[in-house]
Specification:
With 400 residues, the protein is of the alpha/beta class. It has a single domain (77-358), classed as TIM Barrel, CATH 3.20.20.220. The protein is 57% helix and 12% strand. It has helices at residues 6-10, 18-21, 27-40, 43-58, 64-69, 71-75, 81-93, 110-129, 146-154, 160-183, 194-211, 229-243, 257-267, 277-293, 307-319, 339-347, 361-376, 384-396; strands spanning 97-102, 135-138, 186-189, 218-223, 247-252, 298-303, 329-334, 351-358. The chain has an eight-stranded parallel beta barrel with strand order 1-2-3-4-5-6-7-8, surrounded by eight helices. Helix 8 (110-129) packs parallel to helix 10 and helix 14 runs parallel beside helix 15 (307-319). Bound molecules: flavin-adenine dinucleotide (FAD).
Length: 400
């Protein structure tokens, strides 16, 4: 199915409209984005660049400025909350909301986990002061040790010190959720690797039970590249109903497929990943339908760059005659990607947000490397992102 048919345009959304998609991007920024996506199209360059970048940061080489002016500028809002304000305002002008995502990853000390908690709470207060920031995103591995989450999941008894660590992690998460509840700001809890995901699900469930009684504050994430997650979504909904809270669901396909498959093979267990992309797509769309059919009892977000899934949800909203701007029916894309989806849907009046990562440059490097690898994985001469940018440059008569 091509999404650029006349039928689509009639419905008020045209994903091929690059004029709307890049209305907020200057000629100079458009040219720079074209250059960046061309570079990221070269798989060998991304592989070498990622390794060199990581090494340079470890060795504290002065590459901050180069990173900040290129890939960081494309995909991040700023180094601090204050620096994110212009991006938040720019998005708001074009009817797009912001979901702030403090990019602390791979930390391992209690001091660093406390710092992430404090920054996330600051982000909640910042959201409270900005009408266009309804949600803050958080990663449980930014608040506690990966190995601890893994051990909790195995069911092996924790040592005394580990029990204290786990209690501290729980308290950090609860402090964030509590302040979010007081300010009526949402919290997205990201999904991560399957061998720590049961622990994350438990924590998310506990927070939903505490804070989602009157309205949805906490959202868990469902990775539909796992063959068990559609059932898990349905069970989560049943549980929420039984316990008297509203389910918050962020639907994603999942970001750790290679890692999951490699580990499963190395350790000799069946991979949790679907057998092919079509199965993932099918379950993703079924999850969208499941949530739409119960949209008054589930607040959800279609967090994806997949045009067909976005189109499918638009169709369901229309077919069921639902209000475009209902706060339970959300779309979300990452900053710097899929502007043709975000801005065209926002212009037509749907609830759309951009994930805006921010933080010190060295801290967001793993996130930036994931974005570069994702774009390098695209086969063919030109990535979809680059294709849209080139089309807009041609429309403006800019030299390629
Ligand atoms: C706002 C936002 C928030 C996100 N939050 C999270 C998060 O919390 N946790 C997380 O894990 N990811 C998260 N992601 C990333 C997401 O899971 C995907 O990796 C990414 O968005 C690409 O998938 P897609 O739906 O955009 O589209 P597509 O490009 O259509 O799908 C690509 C995805 O399909 C799946 N896939 C590809 N090949 C196969 C195959 N052979 N078999 C089975 N499945 C396959 C993989 O999940 C792959 O990433 C988020 C993405 C967005 C936009």
């Amino acid at each position: 199915m091509t999404v650029n048919s006349k039928k689509n345009r009639k419905r008020g959304v045209d994903f091929s409209n690059v004029e709307i998609a890049f209305a907020g991007t200057s000629d100079a920024d458009l040219k720079q984005a074209a250059w960046l996506f061309k570079m990221m199209n070269k798989k060998w360059l991304v592989t070498i660049g990622s390794q060199l970048g990581l090494t340079a940061f470890k060795m504290r080489l002065p590459i901050n400025k180069i990173v900040e002016k290129t890939i960081f500028k494309q995909f991040c809002g700023g180094k601090t909350l204050l620096e994110c304000q212009p991006t938040v305002d720019q998005l708001h002008k074009r009817n797009v909301l912001t979901i702030l995502d403090y990019g602390a990853e791979g930390k391992s000390t209690e001091e660093a986990f406390n710092a992430t908690m404090r920054e996330t709470m600051r982000a909640v207060r910042f959201a409270n002061e900005n009408d266009s920031v309804p949600v803050i995103s958080t990663k449980i591995t930014g608040l506690g040790r990966f190995g601890l989450l893994e051990k909790v999941q195995t069911g092996v008894e924790l040592t005394g010190v580990e029990k204290e660590e786990y209690i501290a992690l729980f308290k950090r998460l609860n402090s964030i959720c509590h302040v979010a509840y007081e300010h009526k700001v949402g919290i997205f809890i990201d999904a991560e690797e399957s061998w720590i995901q049961d622990t994350i699900d438990y924590l998310a469930r506990t927070m939903m039970e505490r804070y989602n009684k009157e309205q949805v504050i906490i959202y868990n994430t469902f990775q539909l590249y796992r063959h068990d997650r559609l059932d898990f979504l349905k069970n989560s909904y049943e549980l929420a109903k039984r316990k008297g809270y509203i389910l918050g669901a962020k639907l994603v396909r999942g970001a750790y497929m290679d890692k999951e498959n490699v580990r499963a093979e190395a350790q000799g267990y069946a991979s949790p990943i679907q057998r092919d992309k079509a199965s993932t797509d099918k379950d993703f769309n079924s999850a969208v339908k499941f949530c739409i059919d119960r949209y008054e009892e589930i607040a959800f977000c279609n967090a994806s760059h997949n045009e067909k899934s976005a189109w499918y949800m638009l169709e369901l909203i229309e077919r069921n005659n639902l209000s475009k701007g209902h706060p339970h029916l959300n779309f979300c894309q990452l900053l710097g990607m899929s502007d043709h989806l975000s801005f065209n849907m926002a212009k037509a009046g749907f609830c759309v947000a951009k994930y805006v990562p921010y933080g010190p440059i060295a801290d967001v490097v793993p996130y930036l490397i994931r974005r570069a690898k994702e774009n390098a994985a695209v086969t063919g001469d030109m990535s979809r992102e680059l294709g849209f940018i080139v089309k807009e440059m041609e429309r403006r008569g800019l030299k390629k």
